[in-house]
Amino acid sequence: MVPVLLSLPLLLGPVVPQEAQAGRYSLTYLYTGLSKPSEGYPRFWATGFLNDKEFFNYDSESRKAEPVGPWRHVEGMEDWDQESKLQQAREGIFLETLEDIMAYYNDSNGSHTFQGRFGCELQNNGSRGAFWKYGYDGEDFIEFNKEIPAWVPLDPAAWNTKKKWEAEEVYVQRAKAYLEEECPGILQGYLNHSRHILDRQGTHRGLRLGAQGTS
Ligand SMILES: *[C@@H]1O[C@H](CO)[C@@H](O)[C@H](O)[C@H]1NC(C)=O
Ligand SMILES: *[C@@H]1O[C@H](CO)[C@@H](O)[C@H](O)[C@H]1NC(C)=O
Ligand SMILES: *[C@@H]1O[C@H](CO)[C@@H](O)[C@H](O)[C@H]1NC(C)=O
Ligand SMILES: *[C@@H]1O[C@H](CO)[C@@H](O)[C@H](O)[C@H]1NC(C)=O
Hints:
This is MHC class I-like antigen recognition-like domain-containing protein. The protein has helices at about 80-105, 160-165, 170-200, and strands spanning about 25-35, 45-50, 55-60, 65, 115-125, 130-135, 140-145, 150-155. The protein is an alpha+beta fold. The two termini are about 30 Å apart. It binds 2-acetamido-2-deoxy-beta-D-glucopyranose (NAG) (4 copies).
């Protein structure tokens, strides 16, 4: 279990895109990669949230996606071996992107942080939302605009990333389909198995995450 690195700049705004609200559910993945992990920290870790609750984590040392908290007792919600393989593949792409950025800035030996946050939300009234963005050293780096659809560079180095991630037309379509179809489908399946955990806890206590729009 990896504690949040307090020394890291808080990237990409709040982890969970909006305040918990009745009938509103979100699935959020938060990825962090460190070029020079200090002792006790992995090079890469991923955390999954349902609303503001962490439900699984993965890191580059265990290489295993494992449910946490009440989700350890939810049967049949996810195939955790498959999920581990998925996270392993995403770790590879993620760290390769971090290396590309450092190479762009001629600082392949430097100490840098890369973070990604993406996910989707469903509301009982049928409304949907989704988001996918990355940050480098605490600054916005690139984000996906699913209406265009395209990756929008927010940093000079991100033009190369965009080129790579849009090398084939189908990549952009896949990213759009992931946000608009696959992610909500996964969220729906998770809710079918564990909505009671989220509803039982009602509005969260103490942690005010602030509102932030989704597109
Ligand atoms: C990196 O180094 C190359 C070769 O020295 C130089 O052309 C380029 O402008 C440098 N890039 C940055 C972002 O400083
Ligand atoms: C990175 O560090 C290694 C060992 O300290 C050194 O040999 C290499 O030249 C450095 N590379 C860059 C790009 O600074
Ligand atoms: C669903 O409710 C939210 C606020 O609770 C509202 O912003 C949104 O427009 C509604 N969507 C539909 C399809 O009614
Ligand atoms: C979730 O449950 C609903 C209603 O029982 C069902 O129609 C739907 O197929 C389920 N979805 C997933 C992804 O399991």
